Amino acid sequence: MKADDSEEPTGSKDKLKRTLGFFDATAISIGAIIGAGIFVVIGIVAGMAGPSLVISIVIAAGIASFNALSFAQLSVYTPKEGGGYQYAYRMISPYAGFLAGWMWIFSNLFVSAAVSLGFANYLVALIPALSSNAVNAVNVVAVAVCLLFTFLNYRGIRQSAIVNNVLVVSKILILLFFIVFGLGFVNFNNFNPVAPNGFLGVVEGTSLIFFAFFGFARVTILAEEIKDASRTIPRAIILSLALSTVLYALVGFVAVGLVGSNSLSQSASPLASAISVTRNLTALFVVSLGAIIATASVLLTTILGVSRMTFAMARNGQLPTLLSQTHPRFQTPHYSILITGLLSSILVFGGFSRIVAVSTFSLLFHHALVNLSATRLKAENRRYPVFISVLGFILCLALLAFLSRDALVIGIAGLAVGSLYYALVNKRRKMQKRLLN
Questions:
Q1: Which of 12, 22, 283 is nearest to 174 (CA)?
Q2: Which of 3, 19, 264, 317 is surrounded by the most beta carbons within 10 Å?
Q3: How confident is the model at residue 182 (pLDDT cuts 50, 70, 90)?
Q4: Is the pLDDT of residue 95 over 50?
Q5: Contact between residue 313 and residue 99 where contact means Cβ atoms under 8 Å apart
Q6: 412 with 127: CB under 8 angstroms?
Q7: How far apart, in whole angstroms, are the C-alpha atoms of residue 180 and residue 273?
Q8: What local confidence, expressed as pLDDT, does residue 222 receive?
Q9: Class of residue 421 by CB neighbours under 10 A (exposed 0-12, middle 13-18, buried 19+)
Q10: Is 116 helix (H, G, I), strand (E, B) or coil?
C-alpha cells in the first residue's frame, strides 16, 4: 500500500511552515508527557496501587513503548499533520481516521482541563493569598492559564516552541532535584505493604498512570511543521518516552519513600506534600514551581496539538473548513486554536479525577486504532515486527476494562456523538452529489 499524497495541501490558506528541529520536536513530546501525570495523577494512582505505583509506572511505560514503535514507523510512512488521525485514515478507512481524530480531540480537551487544574492547585498552594477561597481560586486560575496559552499558540508555533523548550529543561532539572534531594529522606517502612490492594490495584493504577505517557506522540500531530520529519519524529518519540520513564520511576519511588502512598493519595499536590516532610521550605518552593512549569508546558503543547488535529481533519473535509484556515500573518490555524482554548476552559469545571479517566479512555481508543493501522503496513514499509503493534492493540483494549464507570459512559457517549456527526456529514455529501449529478 503506497502512501497517497493526493491530499497534500496546495493552497496558501492551509499550508504550514517547517520551523522545528530535533531538539524542538523532542521537547514538544517531553513537554506533553511530563506534567499533571507525575505531579498530580501520581497521587490518585498511589491510592490504587499503594507503594506498587512504581510497578504500575513501569508496566504503563512498557505498554506505551509498543504504541510508540507503531507511531514511529507510521510517522516515517505518513509524515503529515494529524498523526494518528492520518494513519488510521490512510491505512484503515476515512471513518476509522475520523474516529481516531475525534477521540484524540475529545481526550485532549479533557487533558487541557486536567493540566490547567493541576497548575492551579500547585499555584494556589504556593501563594497563601489565593488559598482563602481555594476552590474558586483554583477554577479561576485554571481558566486564566488556559486562555493565556491559547493566546501564545495563536501568535505562532516558533514562539510556542521557544517557551516550551525553556519550560521542558526547567522541569527536568526540578524533577532531578526532587529525586536527588528527596533520596536522603526516604523511609523504607513506607513501602510496606507493597501492594495493599493486590494485583487488581496495580492494574487499575497502570490504566490511570497511562495518562501520564500519552504525550510522546504529540510531535506526530505537527509533522508538517518539523524539518526532516521522517527521521526527526521517530527519534524524538523514542528518546522522549525513554527519558520520561526513567524520571517517572525514580520520582515515584522517592515520593512513596518520603510520605507513603496513603498521604500521597490524599493530596491534590502530592509531590509538594512529599517533599514537605524534609521541612525545607526552599525545596518545597522549588518542587511546587516545578509542578507549575510542568503543567504549563503540557497545556501549551496540548492546545498546540488539538488545534493541529482539528486543522488536519478540517483540511480533509471531516470538520468544518473554517478550522483549516491559517492566519495570514502568524501562519497558525487560528480558529482551531481559539475554539480549543475556549472548550478547554469550560471543561475545567468537570472535576479532576473524572477528567483524567475520560481522557484516558479516549486516548486508549485512539492508540488502539494507531496500532491497528500499523498492522496494515506492508513488510517493506515496516520497521518492527508486526506482533509489536498487535500486542499494543490488545493491551490498549485490555486497559479500558479497568477504568471507572464514569469514564466508560462518557467516553462511549463521545464516541457515539462522533459517529453520529460522521454519518450526518456523509449523508449530506451524498445528497449534494446526487443534486450535482
A1: 283
A2: 264
A3: very high
A4: yes
A5: no
A6: no
A7: 16
A8: 76
A9: middle
A10: helix
Least confident of 113-117, 127-131, 297-301, 404-408: 127-131
Ramachandran class of 139: left when φ > 0, alpha when ψ lies in -120 to 50, beta otherwise: alpha
> Is pLDDT of 100 > 60?
yes
Cα separation, 419 vs 372, whole angstroms: 19
Residue 405: partners with Cβ closer than 8 Å, 6 or more residues away: none
Whether 246 and 33 have beta carbons less than 8 Å apart is answered as no
CB 111, CB 298: distance < 8 Å: yes
Sign (positive/negative) of CA torsion 346, 348, 349, 354? positive
Question: How many other β-carbons are positioned within 10 Å of the β-carbon of residue 53?
Answer: 31
How many whole angstroms separate alpha carbon 292 and alpha carbon 123? 7
pTM assigned to the model: 0.78
**Domain layout of the chain by residue ranges:** 18-436
Backbone angles phi, psi at 226, to 5 degrees: -115, 135
Using only C-alpha atoms, what is the Rg of the chain?
A: 21
CA neighbor of 215 nearest in space, from 153, 298, 296: 298
- For the CA atoms of 260, 261, 263, 264, what is the dihedral angle to 10 degrees? 120
* 18-436 maps to CATH 1.20.1740.10: yes
Measured distance CA(204)–CA(56) in Å, rounded:
8
Residue 184 has a CB neighbour count (10 Å cut-off) of 8
**Cα atoms in the 13 Å half-sphere on the side-chain side of 256:** 28
Q: Is the pLDDT of residue 160 over 70?
A: no
- Higher-confidence residue of 2 and 367: namely 367
Residues 248, 331: contact at Cβ < 8 Å? no
Of residues 3 and 399, the one with the higher pLDDT is: 399
Nearest by Cα to 352 from 99, 117, 142: 117
Residue 86 has pLDDT above 50, yes or no: yes
Q: State residue 403's pLDDT score.
A: 84
Identity of the residue numbered 426: N
Helix boundaries (H) for 261-280: 261-265, 270-275
Which position has the grid cell 523514542? 238
